[in-house]
Amino acid sequence: MVEDQIKRRGIIDKRVLAAMEEIPRHEFVEEGLKGVAYQDGPLPIGMDQTISQPYIVALMSELLDVSEEDKVLEVGTGSGYQAAVISRFAMSVVTVERIPELYKKAKKTLRKLGYNNITVVLADGSIGYREYAPYNRIIVTAASPFVPDELIEQLTDPGKIVIPVGGMFTQQLVVLKKEAGKVIKTDSIGVRFVPLKGRKGWENGA
Ligand code: SAM
Fold first, then answer.
1. Is 32 helix (H, G, I), strand (E, B) or coil?
2. pLDDT tens, 117-138?
3. Looking at residue 124, which CATH number applies to its domain?
4. Residue 29's domain spans which residues?
5. pLDDT band at 70 (very low <50, low <70, confident <90, very high)
6. What distance in Å separates the CA atoms of residue 195 and residue 168, rounded to the nearest whole number?
7. How many structural domains does the chain have?
8. 3-class secondary-structure state, position 82
9. Is residue 198, in this structure, part of any structural domain at all?
10. Is the CB of 120 under 6 A from ligand 1?
């Protein structure tokens, strides 16, 4: 997976490559899908949600540019896999999920695998998670119609957000860099994420 799908597409961050080589992705997917856990695409995790394609996990982790002193917020825990990857090179990760079944399952998986610097929270992450703010890095792994103000407010200065922004079906992966009170936006690749629901997400949310 790492050689064929990730390095070949240009990911060079050694910490990301090592984390994805070591983390057992099959532990984050359903029993019947363990045999295809390392394939080049997203997979269903129940409740109409997905674990992202390995390359997208690697790209977002590299773009987030995390250091060992960083506190990271992830919006969209899903299976917990992206949080597990980031936790390998962050000080701590707070990951927020709105669907109780996925929250419980991810919490159980992460506990079983021994991750002790990840806090899994059941909440509407479209407004961030104020209790543990501010965060040095914020990653959103669901499609957002816009960048919620709350995320920018809960970000340190300097700080960085990686978030897919656009329509319900296709989005642009965007990197927002906060520096000296200014926010600079850079576009990365086109992506397809499931929608961010909730107060600052798409309608009919949490
Ligand atoms: N990062 C995940 C992983 O590694 O498995 C994949 C995330 S999946 C593509 C998107 C997740 O975002 C879903 O589990 C969905 O329930 C969650 N989500 C959508 N809107 C949310 C919200 N407002 N707050 C928290 N989680 C949300």
1. helix
2. 999 999 999 999 999 999 999 9
3. 3.40.50.150
4. 2-191
5. very high
6. 6
7. 1
8. helix
9. no
10. no
The sheet carrying 171-179 orders its strands as 118-122, 92-97, 71-75, 135-140, 155-166, 171-179, 182-191
* 204 within domain boundaries: no
Name 51's bridge partners. Answer: 43
Q: Region 146-163: what's the mean pLDDT?
A: 98
pLDDT in the model for residue 203 = 75
Q: Indicate which residue's Cα is closest to atom 2 of ligand 1.
A: 78
Does a structural domain hold residue 202?
no
Q: Calculate how far, in angstroms, residue 174's C-alpha sits from the geometric centre of ligand 1.
A: 17
Q: Is the pTM of this model over 0.85?
A: yes
38-64: average pLDDT:
97
197 inside domain: no
Q: Is 102 in the pocket of ligand 1 (CB under 6 A)?
A: yes
61 in contact with ligand 1, CB cutoff 6 A: no
206 pLDDT exceeds 60? no
Longest dimension (CA), the chain: 49
As a whole number of angstroms, the distance between CA 149 and CA 165 comes to 13
Question: For 64, phi and psi rounded to 5 degrees?
Answer: -70, -25
